[in-house]
Amino acid sequence: MAALELSDAHVARLRIWMWLAFCGVLILGLALVPWLSRNISFWFYLMLWMSMASAFNIISGFAGYLPFGYVAFYGIGAYVTAVLVRKLDWPVGLAIPLAGMAGVLLSLIFAKTLKLSGIYFAIVSLALGIICQILISNMPEEITGGSYGINLGGSPEPVHSFYAMLAVLAATLATSTWVARSRLGTALKAIRDDGEAADALGVDVPRVRLYAWMLAALFPSLCGAVEAWYTNVVDSTTAFDTLITAKTVIYATMGGLGTVSGPVVGAAILVGIDDLIWQHFPVANLFLLGLVVVLLIQFMPRGVVGTLLRRKPQLRRYLM
Amino acid sequence: MSTLLILQGFAYGVIVGAVYALLGCSLNVLYGVLRVVNFAHGEFIIAGTFVSYVLFNALHLHPLAALPIAAVSFFAAGWCLYYLLVPRLRTADDPELSSFLMMYGISLMAAATMLGLFGADARNISYTFQPIAVRLGPVFLPTARLVALALSIIIGGALAWFFYRTLPGKALRAAIMNPEAIQIVGVDINRLSALAFGLAAGLAGATGVLVGLVFPAFTPFSGPDYTLIGFIVIVLGGLGHPVGALLGGVLFGLAEQMSTVFMPQALSPIVGFALLIGVIFLKPSGLMGRVQLR
Amino acid sequence: MLVVDGLCKSFGGLVAVDGLDFRVERGTILGMIGINGAGKTTVMNCLNGIYRSDAGRVSFEGVDITHWTPHAVARAGIGRTFQVPRIFRRMTLIENLLVPMLKSGESDRALTERAEHFLARVKLQVLRHNFAEELSGGQQKLLELARVMMFEPKLILLDEPFAGVNPALCKLFIDEIEALLASGTTFVLVSHDLTSIYRLSDHIVVLNQGRKIAEGTVDAIKRDPVVVEAYLGA
Are the beta carbons of A126 and B280 separated by less than 8 Å? Predict the structure, then answer.
């Protein structure tokens, strides 16, 4: 069938170079957006969702967990940034990395829940996300601004936060690519498919899944931090909205969990559709989003890339 | 801090807990038989409350008369919804998580529909019972809440009778214990599953009417609150364990209501969550359930 | 090589394994037989740490490995296969074989070559880029064997290796076991199928209701009235 036979090693190299080239073009194209487009906001959120979905893929697509309280990391990142900038007068450039660290710290606090699996983990995670929201909105107003939230003050230049988001996206893609190709990724996939068997073959399951969990927590925290800088305001209702988790899950699933390119593709497709819906049917927005989810699960549970790989086995060696 | 307040909190806890128990029970029927965790359950319930609201406002129908109407119509809707949504899921990689996500989509659609029909304002059913409250020993309890408690107990009893004394009920229990085996012994799992889905939806509709009696207000966006409470209740009691859900519901109701006696209102949800986390770490399978850990 | 001493495990009120002792000599095959529910798989799970035994000791090459976690047991050199094949279904065959080697210092390329070598031995090399879920049941069993061979364990626990495997694949399986045996690997072979056990084992332990009811060479077990009674009903 194949016209020319490439050795496995060649194919593997071709595969990674094709993917890196795609990422390079994507990042470069996005870097030009501030000059080419007046609608920075659309592109900013596109990058944010690509990043969120790719990071989510590390814990969900590779390791097989469905953290339905994923927004907790996003929210904590936003709040840490806001508090550091507004209350302690820290420069944003320092606050954002610290927000990332705060997310990782939170993931360590939640690490014990990784012992749970499947739907149990999903429900407990959802509850933890909501606990975070309640705790933050009930903290003293001098710190988190109560239910009104925090205004970061100053007059930020959206282009700056745009490039910060681009950097976060690049870092997420690099990490997710590295995980997929590394032994960590193989271990994670083994845990996803059968944790007990992986354990019996010498994989240190608790340690490996903790690494994935921490990585998956870092990037949403950074996203939340940069978004807080971009919008200049943080409040507990929007920063901890379950819809953020849901969109992340939906975008990643749309593309295909467990593939590196899937979450990027899925986010691109659905953020585009979402934008169209908002422009033309703002009232029906939620309804249509729900409909997309139902249709997706019914007809393409493995997502665009996942389905393609299943139908066309010969592509498996070429697509990341 | 008076004993009176504590007694009052306890009584409210039992009442609210009974409603939560029903909520958890219907979720568990669904999970037990179908392995579907219904993220849209809260919306089902609020839809039931809206049915009662509309019947009362348009036709001046007593909420108690709305209850069977909601239950029966939701049963039929659930039955249809099953055939529309669930059979295809079985082919997914992880049917449980897929169904969880899909039902989230349904919950968005349901909430958006109710928003379109009723707007975002908070509503309440302005029916008042005569007398408005009943004195029980030292505490006064609103009649509406007592009626809701009585109804929950009646529905719970009817459920128990159904599960333990009727053939379809026994088949459902068998399906909860071993979904594979029941197909081998000649039960049509599709019809049984549709029955379970219908039953869960019907129960949710009835629970919604009770919610209208017990809680002061509701909006199209109240659904997720009840979904979350339902999740906590079933995790507390043990996934897929109908009796565990009763226990979990009452426990959660008590914890929530008692905490309002001792803590600021806004923080009281924390107590329920703390209970959840405590149970998860001490006995991860829930109070009565069994679950695989990894 | 492996010494099990007074192993006990119960679930709730049910005693699955009750004071079991046995030892396995280097380079031999220990067969473990017993009717369904005799506790065979439970013993396996206790040996490799999936279950935590309630009492008793397990030592391997003189090291006490009681209560070690499964991955520690694996790294000590004990591999196993499962009664129902537990492959990593959404990973390619090569990736499946890499899993036990993730901690090794060898390069990815060397490991991949080794994986291909072992896949060739169980006649699966053509399918090396397929997902494991696309294999037949018998092929999945062979994949499990290749996977456990990958890290060259000193002791391999085989749980019902021949159940549901067609005769041709079964022969391939037995050939591989004999080849490994010749190179010095030790086995514990669990089965309720007497023919294969009698053929392969050097020494046999018979379990009934979690207890050892007989032990000895193949010939001795074949003639033991206690075993016959346990199998044919009492």
Answer: no
